[in-house]
Amino acid sequence: MLTNASYLYVVRMDVAPDHEGEFNRNYDTEHIPTVLKAPGMIGAARFETSDTSVAKYVAIYEMEGTDVPFTKEFRALADSGEWPHRVRPYTSNHSRVVYKRIVSGT
After folding, report:
1. Would you state the pLDDT for residue 1?
2. Cβ pair 100, 68 in contact under 8 A
3. How far is it, in rounded angstroms, from Cα 21 to Cα 17?
4. Following CA atoms 66, 9, 103, 43 in sequence, which dihedral angle do they give, to the nearest 10 degrees?
5. How many CA atoms lie within 13 A of 18 on its CB side?
6. Given this model, what pLDDT does residue 106 score?
7. DSSP conformational letter for 81
8. 83 and 11 in contact (C-beta within 8 Å)?
9. Backbone torsions φ then ψ of 85, nearest 5 degrees
10. What is the pLDDT of residues 47-97, one digit of tens each?
11. What is the value of pTM for the model shown?
């Protein structure tokens, strides 16, 4: 995935093994589509790794500005639906970082 977005929001986390099915279902069918409604969000992709020294799951969001994940609109959308009650309690090892593009893609 090569993106032309100027900013990326990278979210990494683990999830309790007995909740992975619900985690993946919700992330793909509810959480990402909902969060992408926030002003300034462009797109998203998710990945997983078998490397046990880092968080298993990563979501990479393309954005129009560094402030997008900190707006009240984004927060309200991220905290809606089933995510805060049925999924988030079973996640751990969180990391959230905003990156700014420093070199143009070709």
Report:
1. 53
2. no
3. 8
4. -100
5. 1
6. 53
7. T
8. no
9. -105, -35
10. 999 999 999 999 999 999 999 999 999 999 999 999 999 999 999 999 999
11. 0.90
Report which DSSP code applies to 50: -
Q: Report pLDDT digits (tens) over 7-62.
A: 999 999 999 999 999 999 999 999 999 999 999 999 999 999 999 999 999 999 99
Q: Which of 100, 77, 96, 87 is nearest to 15 (CA)?
A: 87
Sheet with 7-15, side-by-side order of all strands: 41-48, 57-63, 7-15, 91-100
Could you tell me if 66 and 97 are in contact, meaning their C-beta atoms sit under 8 angstroms apart? no
The number of CA neighbours under 13 Å toward the Cβ of 98 is: 12
Token pair of 50 as six digits: 């078998």
Instruction: Count the neighbouring beta carbons within 10 Å of the beta carbon of residue 39.
Output: 12
Cα separation, 54 vs 69, whole angstroms: 23
Domains of the chain: 7-100 (3.30.70.100)
H or E element in which residue 100 lies: strand 91-100
**pLDDT for position 2:** 59
